[in-house]
Amino acid sequence: MPHILHLDASARPGLAGKVQHGSHSRNLSHRFVSQWQARRPLDLITYRDIGQNPPSIISHDWIASSFTAEPKREAWMRDTLAESDRLVDELIAADVLVIGTPLYNFGMPAALKAWIDQVVRPGRTVELDESNPLDPYVPMLADRPRDVVILTARGGIGFDAGGEMAHMNHLEPNLITALGFIGLTRVHQIAIEGQEVGGELLAESVARGLNKVDALVAELQRLLQTERVEQPA
């Protein structure tokens, strides 16, 4: 049974269009999940609102624990990594990772960066091949197909590839690099723009974004079904 891991990173708790100052990125991610469930109600959904409940920022103790081989870890090290282990376990179990995130100051929200730092883990999501010093990193989540859906809301316009502000967009490129590093390379992106502009420009961007979300749900469900049929018994 497919498993969806749904993350929301916006500091705004409500949905745009339903509450004042609601989140457009949450609106996109909840649309994706609701459309998915409408077509496949029995699939598993794990939800984390990291915008309202941010993961811990990594510390010296976390680093020391993470880079200590598991058999050598002391009890305090295992306790230090308990949160990270839960987050990594959720990610490993997922067939589709859905991230709803705003663009904050040209990059990702601090809560999302904290989540990334918790799940990029030596021995859990990336291995080190000491026999290959020029390219020692081996992604551990490339073991089976997983899809990543990045649903973004931006205040300004022109941040898409080829746009006038694209060189200042460090959100999707950063996410794609970090997730690719651990083996998640099938990435799908949908963004809405113009939240600070408002008016027809924003309304049209939101409408296009929601339509793209609906189409992507149908596409990924077809792909998922095809891949499962093609798997050997």
Structural overview:
The chain has 233 residues and is α/β, with parallel strands linked by helices. 40% of the residues lie in helices and 17% in strands. The chain has seven helices and seven strands. The strands form two sheets. It has a five-stranded parallel β-sheet, with helices on both faces. A two-stranded antiparallel ribbon has the order 4-5. Helix 1 (24-39) runs parallel beside helix 7 (199-230). It is globular and about 60 Å long. The mean pLDDT is 94.
From the alpha carbons, calculate the radius of gyration and give it in angstroms.
19 Å
- What is the string of helix and strand elements? EHEHHHEHEEEHEH
Shape: globular
Mean pLDDT: 94
What is the makeup of the main sheet? 5 strands, parallel
Strand order of the largest sheet: 2-1-3-6-7
Q: Please identify the structural class as seen in this structure.
A: alpha/beta
Instruction: Quote the distance from N terminus to C terminus.
Output: 15 Å
Helicity level: 25-40%
Provide a short characterization of the protein structure.
This protein is of the alpha/beta class and 233 residues long. It has helices at residues 24-39, 60-66, 75-80, 82-93, 110-119, 172-181, 199-230; strands at residues 3-8, 44-49, 96-102, 126-128, 137-139, 147-153, 186-192. The chain has a five-stranded parallel beta sheet with strand order 2-1-3-6-7, sandwiched between helices. It has a two-stranded antiparallel sheet with strand order 4-5.
